[in-house]
Design goal:
The complex is a heterodimer. Chain A is α/β, with parallel strands linked by helices. Chain A contains 10 helices and 13 strands. Chain B starts with a helix and ends in a 10-residue tail after the last helix. The chains are: A alpha/beta, B mainly alpha. Bound molecules: adenosine-5'-triphosphate and magnesium ion.
Amino acid sequence: MIEFESVSKRFEDGTVAVEDFSFVLPSHKTTVFVGSSGCGKTTLLRMINRMIEPSSGRITIDGVDIAGRNKVELRRSIGYVLQAAGLLPHRKVVDNVATVPLLQGVSKTEARGRALDLLDTVGLDRALAKRYPRQLSGGQQQRVGVARALASDPNILLMDEPFGAVDPIVRADLQAELNRLQRELGKTIVFVTHDIDEAFLLADQVVIFRKGGIIAQAGTPAQILAEPADDFVASFIGADKGKRTLHLQQREGDEGLTLVVDGDGRPIGVLRDGTLEPEVPGP
Amino acid sequence: MDLILSALGWIFDPAHWESGSRSPLPIQDRLLEHLRYTAGSLVIAAAIALPLGFYIGHTGRGRQFVISFTGAMRALPTLGLLYFLLMVFGYWLSFDTAPIVGATISFVILAIPSMLAGAYAGLESVDRQTIDAARANGMTEWQILSRVEIPLALPLILGGLRAATLQVIATVTIASYAGLGGLGRIITSGIGLNDYDLILGGALLVTGLALFVDALFALAQRLTATPGLTENHPAARRRTIKRSPRPRAPENA
Ligand SMILES: Nc1ncnc2c1ncn2[C@@H]1O[C@H](COP(=O)(O)OP(=O)(O)OP(=O)(O)O)[C@@H](O)[C@H]1O
Ligand SMILES: [Mg+2]
């Protein structure tokens, strides 16, 4: 469990990125931070591994104040995936994945062996292990970034717009993969994105931010979709345009098929056998 | 052309390599002195410039200082500095030590700007995202420097060392003005004796030495070329490294 207690961050130049933020991120769940650019999502995320220090307030992990923990140790115990992957260009893929275990003193053979297993885990061909990051596509680099973040088997995974720079098809792939991984691994994931659809897809809990790290609404995707807290949230999730409230419609001549239409009456699909999609089992 | 051939003949005359020959011979003694002064000055300069450059490049502190300071140092005429230092140290130190101390300091000051600029610019050129990721993965500052920044900056660091080495090799020639040895001694004697073989022969030796050492550096740069930074074509890598220290002609010109 990660808990923010009245956390604020004011940068040296006076910018207040986060103001009096209090929130609990439950263990083994995916919490997605979403909001427009500059609202403080990255700042919040980077305070969890002390890449940024809060100006006031405190952050605890399982009840322990992280301010009292050694920064380097803390960072090694938390996986971090960045938008640009941030791989070391002069190291082979396998050594990139093994970065943290090697820092922790695991032997080279063992760390590499584990790194190869992790390539399987994130759906990469082991043949890529000997390549350098430059020789991979953006999507492949991103997977290597995820594998590296998993290498020390951290309980917490921080992901800052990890799929922002890849094309929509690859992104959909990576999202599905992450959902599958999370079902297996049950990490405490903090995921930052601009993309509300991505948030709804991945999240157990979504936090929608206004400027200054102020929570506009927090809840499960269904709760937010069903009852947007205010106009800001409604417009952010697209509910104001009617694209989020769906109705069933039966038209003449359709021989019993049920259409699903959005708030504007635009057909967006058909209801399959009138049954609900079974809920994806949680971790 | 005749002059050069005659000077080459002088260089390759075995008699001039015989130990115990009359000053400024034998050639190998002067060559060794030349290399000794060069190496000594370079080691001292590197011990000052590299840590300073790494510190500034890593922390980003003191960038303005480096830029203005190295600029000013580059503008110092080494020969003038040498005479000045000889004068200063002449008061303090013995007749034997003043020249070597003064000359070494002059050469160190000559070598520092290139080395400092190479180290600092090398670290500066490393992608901030890469460093940020390394830090976020739990590398200590020292590990970031030694395992990420320096390896990635190596081409520029070596470029700085290479430039400094060539400058010093060429300039150590003036050590003879301080009454020291080195290949400059041959040239100075030649001027005194009005002997073109000595003057030109000495100059050719300095040039040959510089080219030889430069070739060694080229080799070292190829051998230590950071893998993964280019598309793994050694030829392409060599080309970019060789050309980068020089100003490039505008493309599409
Ligand atoms: N080092 C810094 N110094 C000063 N201001 C900063 C610094 N880092 C971030 N900020 C400011 O803090 C605010 C929040 O930044 P942050 O990076 O957390 O936003 P974000 O929600 O992640 O945005 P994006 O979606 O564009 O990544 C912004 O106004 C930004 O300009
Ligand atoms: Mg951000």
